[in-house]
Design a protein that fits this description.
single chain, about 60% helix, about 90 residues
Amino acid sequence: MATFLSFIFYLFLSGLIFIGMILFILYRRVKNVTNMFNKQRHSTQQQERQRTYRSDSGETVVDYRNTQETDRKIFRKEEGEYVDYEEEK
């Protein structure tokens, strides 16, 4: 009878250890996903801060354009990039 009870005890103990290991693995995965989400959110917040400008008069200007629109040329294609000039002597 004692061997049967010790067998049940060790079986129960090994089951608890197994469940604990599974819970620990799940906890680490959830923690890693949470950290990745927080890093992405932090990166997005930094990009938003870079698009917010404060003028000398105290006005705050927020640029809601995406990066493609922000990086494109300001002038039209027919205007060209350079201005012809003549030097005065």
